[in-house]
Amino acid sequence: MTTPEFNPFASPEADQPGSDQPEADTTFPLQATAIAQIEEIPTPYAGKVRTLVNRFMVGLANVMIRLPIVGAVYFLIRYAPEWMNLGGLASLALTALVIGVFTVVFLLINALCEDRWWEVMMRRQVDRRPSPWIVSATYRSQFVTLTSSKPQAMASFQLGTNDAEIIDIGLLRLDHDTGEILLECDLRRYRIPRASLLACDVRQITLHTPWTPVVRIACETLTGPSEFCILASDTNPWRIFVRRYRRKRAEEIAEEIYSLPSIPDEPMRPEMAS
Q1: Cα–Cα distance, 28 to 46 (Å, whole number)
Q2: How far is the C-alpha of 47 from the C-alpha of 25, rounded, in Å?
């Protein structure tokens, strides 16, 4: 498979749906007996949430929230020992305490802000759509991020490691009545019957950190297998310090997917039936 050439002089564009086609020789542990449906969101409503402007504003807001904390920590470390007439060891202890509290608050703010803001914007946009597959006010759903299952290509001059690519954000609902995984996202919408799954497992990908647990989903569509990963949001930021919290969230989603009833629906294509 060839890697598309990177053009460093190209103008930035809004997100486009990432490639979710697995390698041609990929084998999967499950056999599909149904077809998943993946549709592009209609043009007036597609790509309205995770735009370049919104990403800049969310990033700016996160920076502005952190600045007062950084300033307060600096002044405490710089001036508190003098005000309190602390000696060398006491001053070091105070510095270590301030840095520890700062780290905890910093991580909590990160967990509280970004996913929460994206979820609010996503739900508002879904409510504006004429016929969404998930009605935010009627059915319980959760905010998730969709990523590629493999690292994105990097140019030869780029430094760092190959991270997986964020391909979409949206709402996830697991319908136990119809046995379907429903995703109403910013760029696409997915209707994935349990019987159309080719794979569903918990894996670790490199996304900001090299140990991010996600749920890998592979399903059969009319155009062939489609593969992507589901990253759950941090709904309880106070538990991000628990060692296995993120993995537990991924395992809970995978287990609930496996508990969906498997209902074959559409006739299989000849090459699938063979």
Answers
A1: 31
A2: 32
Task: List the CATH number of the domain containing 141.
Answer: 2.30.29
Tell me the pLDDT tens digit for each residue of 191-228.
999 999 999 999 998 887 778 899 999 999 999 999 99
Contact by Cβ (8 Å): 226, 211: no
**Which range of residues forms the domain containing residue 218?**
37-46+132-268
CB–CB of 125/170 below 8 Å?
no
* Residue 107 exposure: Cα atoms within 13 Å on the Cβ side: 13
| The total number of structural domains that make up the chain | 1
In a domain, 234, yes or no: yes
114 lies in some domain: no
The token pair that represents 42 in the structure block: 């209609």
Give 4-42 pLDDT, tens digit per residue. 444 444 444 444 444 566 666 678 889 999 999 999 999
Q: 0.85 cut: is pTM over it?
A: no
Domain membership flag for residue 163: yes
- Establish if 71 belongs to a structural domain: no
Rounded to the nearest angstrom, the gap between the alpha carbon of residue 57 and the centroid of all alpha carbons in its chain is 18
User: Alpha-carbon distance 201 to 229, whole Å?
Assistant: 9
The parts of the chain modelled with pLDDT lower than 70 are: 1-25, 65-66, 73, 76-92, 94, 106-113, 137-138, 152-162, 235-243, 264-274
